[in-house]
Every structure is written in structure tokens, then in C-alpha cells.
Specification:
By secondary structure, this protein is α+β, with helices and mostly antiparallel strands. It has eleven helices and four strands, in the order ααααβαβαββααααα.
């Protein structure tokens, strides 16, 4: 989630001219409660947080997920922004960029993994038909080196919370376009760093008393993450990862001594 995307959704989707903090927080709480719905109403699958997330993260570094939710509504908003929808409508809208709660477009790049948590009284046959239609219409582009499938978890709704819609859905997705978000952050960081903005306050802390190398290290970590997300869009991502591991291992190994140096060391002993 990020505030820019949440404000955009409140203005464009819910038609609120000036969203308040409580209205934005209402969207956040809706997403957070939906993401733990399968834990609070346990079933045969997805009843623990590790199992829920592990299927979305194929490699350790590609673990930044984005969310989407539909249909949206606000408790304190009077406009009839909610309508009853079918399972197909929900699953189709979850793939639309305008419903993504992160400021990056899913029109470019590809999905690494998707988990849809569908809430309400849903017939599993409707889910299978919806998945088939999404596949036929090619509404989602997946990575070429992994499984191209949408995982679906069905969960019940709380009997104590009345909603105007029969079916609602949350999407937890791992998408390569999130690297654009990190690129914008790096660009903004570079502008501030070049002007030495806000630097003096950091120099006065013990952590940065010896220098500002910590900033440079953090920047290189983010830059390598961006490169990895870009590499994950190509078919040879696995080979790319192996090459990165070999290069990292080579840098960690101590330099080998020449044969003459080894012989001299033996004579010295």
C-alpha cells in the first residue's frame, strides 16, 4: 500500500474530492482484515500466514507484494459506490491497474504470482469458469520461467458485518513493475543527496559519525533489487541468478597466492 495510490483510488473510484485520514485508513483496514480473513475463518488451506505468503515469493529478494481490492466502499461515505458483483467481475477487476493500491502500473512487466482471496458465498465452479475466461482473454501476463496460474482462496464473511455486496475480493500479487516504485525513490534520494539536504541531522548521530557510507550501501542494495526485478522478466532469470551467486562467491573468496609465493612460504616454515 502507498498513500499516493490510496488517495487516487478515493478520488477516482469513490468520488471523494478531499479524502480524510479516516477515510484512507478505512481502505487500509479493509485490506488488512481481508488479508487475514482465511486465518480468522480457517479452512482446509491458507490457514497460516507463512503458507499464505510463501507461495507468492519464488526467491528471497522478490518479496515485495502489492494489493488490490474490489468492490470498494467507505463506512462514512453516503455515495452508492458499491454494487453487487459476480465472481468473474471481482476477479477481472482485481487485475485492473486502477484497483491496484500501489503507485505502479501493471500494464507493463509481468506477474510473478497472484493470490485472490474471495469472500462470500461462492460456488467453486464459478471460480474455475472465471479462471478459464481470464486465461482465454489473456488478462494477466506471467513470468516466462514459472507457473502461469492464479491461486484462489475462498473464505467466509463475518456474520456480524453487513455488506451491500455478495462477493468481494482481495488480490495479493507479486509484480515486476514494482521496480518503478524503487526507481522513483532512488531518483528522489539522489536529488536530496546531491544538495546535501537533511544531511546535517544525520551527521550528528553516532551511526553516521564516521561518514555517510551507510547511505551509499543502502542505495546499492535498492539498485541491485531493481536489477533483479528487471531480470525476472526474462526467460533466463534462473541462469542470471546463478551468475550473480558465482560473482558474489568470487568476491568473498580470499585471493589465491602465486605458486612461487606458496613455495617460499613452505621454505620459511
Amino acid at each position: 500500500l502507498d498513500n499516493t495510490a490510496l488517495n487516487r483510488i478515493a478520488v477516482e473510484r469513490l468520488h471523494i474530492e478531499n479524502p480524510t485520514n479516516s477515510q484512507i485508513n478505512s481502505l487500509v483496514s479493509t485490506v488488512m482484515s481481508a488479508s487475514t480473513n482465511t486465518l480468522r475463518f480457517p479452512g482446509y488451506m491458507n490457514n497460516d500466514l507463512i503458507g499464505l505468503v510463501s507461495s507468492l515469493i519464488p526467491t528471497p529478494r522478490l518479496h515485495f507484494l502489492m494489493t488490490g481490492y474490489t468492490p470498494l466502499s467507505l463506512v462514512d461515505h453516503d455515495a452508492p459506490a458499491v454494487r453487487k458483483t459476480s465472481v468473474m467481475d471481482v476477479m477481472r477487476r482485481l487485475l485492473q491497474t486502477k484497483n491496484i493500491m500501489v503507485s505502479c502500473s501493471t500494464r507493463k512487466g509481468c506477474y510473478i504470482s497472484i493470490l485472490d482471496i474471495i469472500q462470500g458465498e461462492v460456488d467453486p465452479t464459478q471460480v474455475h469458469k472465471s479462471l478459464q475466461r481470464i486465461r482465454e482473454r489473456r488478462l494477466a501476463t506471467f513470468i516466462p520461467w514459472g507457473p502461469a496460474s492464479i491461486q484462489v482462496a475462498l473464505s467466509r464473511k463475518s456474520p456480524y458485518v453487513k455488506t451491500a455486496h455478495r462477493v468481494s475480493g482481495l488480490m495479493l500479487a507479486n509484480h515486476t513493475s514494482i521496480h518503478t516504485l524503487f526507481s522513483r525513490a532512488l531518483s528522489q534520494f539522489d536529488k536530496l543527496k546531491n544538495r546535501n539536504a537533511f544531511i546535517e541531522a544525520y551527521r550528528q548521530t553516532a551511526m553516521f559519525s564516521d561518514g555517510l557510507d551507510e547511505f551509499d550501501d543502502a542505495r546499492s542494495v535498492v539498485q541491485s533489487l531493481i536489477e533483479e526485478y528487471k531480470a525476472s522478466e526474462s526467460p533466463d532469470y534462473v541462469q542470471w541468478g546463478l551468475r550473480q551467486e558465482e560473482e558474489a562467491a568470487a568476491l568473498e573468496r580470499p585471493p589465491e597466492r602465486m605458486a612461487g609465493e606458496a613455495a617460499m612460504a613452505g621454505l620459511a616454515h
